[in-house]
Design a protein that fits this description.
Elements: E1 9-11, E2 18-19, H1 21-29, H2 46-63, H3 71-87, H4 97-108, E3 121-126, E4 132-135, E5 138-141, E6 150-155, E7 159-164, E8 167-173, E9 181-182, H5 190-196, H6 200-208, H7 212-223
Parallel strand pairs: 5-9
Antiparallel strand pairs: 1-2, 3-6, 4-5, 6-7, 7-8
Helix pairs in contact: 2-3, 6-7
């Protein structure tokens, strides 16, 4: 239950808070639920507030008159205070925080995912008439059936994923070529797919069915043009 920090909650609301998509993405990766406290309702996270008070009383107050000359030295002192605090029996429960962690929390904890979370940025985009979207000055294809549709884009350092209504509809390796296009054949409409399959070698092979001389003629015609389409 976090506060309504801007990096986690895009828009605070008593009933339906709008969460930062990257923050939500990370929480889902680690199997956590994000339930922000209601605005101006500190009692929603009373345990957290109590934890801050305990840290101030048993760590900050103990170390307030000491001088430290490095971060490592400070962390070592904090660790000692924390060990004493966690091993100290609590008055009401007659058990220490360490005992409760070992008997209650640790057995219930889930293992971490095999891979750490890869930072991702989220964008909203609209599919262009050429069934591509522009992300970071590069164009990526999506299924042609989604022309003019609004989609969500998840971008990492290595991958790009496209979602529509929560369903992934496309995935590409990220490209850093400005103005370039990354297109998958299965995203093309049938007529574009057929056109893309025509190549100089296919023309020559097709001409060869008529005869070797025809194949040589087509090859020479294609060689005189800077682009095969002009032949």
């Amino acid at each position: 239950m976090p506060d309504n920090l801007k990096s986690g909650v895009s828009k605070a609301c008593k009933y339906e808070p709008e969460l930062n998509p990257t923050y939500t993405d990370m929480a889902e990766h680690y199997g956590c639920a994000v339930l922000p406290a209601r605005p101006r309702k500190p009692r929603d996270k009373a345990k957290v507030e109590a934890g801050v008070l305990i840290a101030q009383r048993w760590i900050l107050a103990v170390l307030r008159h000491r001088t430290f000359y490095s971060l490592a030295e400070l962390n070592a002192a904090i660790r000692q205070c924390l060990e004493r605090l966690n091993n100290r029996p609590m008055r009401r429960l007659k058990k220490s925080r360490r005992e409760l962690f070992e008997t209650v929390d640790r057995p219930s904890a889930l293992p971490l995912p095999a891979r750490p979370y890869e930072y991702a940025e989220w964008y909203k985009s609209r599919v262009n008439v050429d069934y591509h979207i522009e992300v970071d000055h590069h164009y990526y294809s999506v299924p042609f059936q989604l022309l003019r549709e609004k989609v969500d884009v998840r971008l990492t350092a290595t991958t790009l994923e496209v979602f529509r209504k929560g369903e992934r509809v496309a995935a590409h390796a990220r490209s850093y070529v400005r103005g370039g296009h990354t297109t998958l054949k299965e995203h093309m409409p049938p007529e574009h797919r057929s056109y893309a399959e025509w190549s100089p070698s296919r023309f020559i092979q097709w001409a060869g069915k008529t005869g070797a001389s025809t194949a040589q003629l087509v090859e020479k015609i294609l060689a005189t043009r800077p682009y095969p389409e002009q032949g």
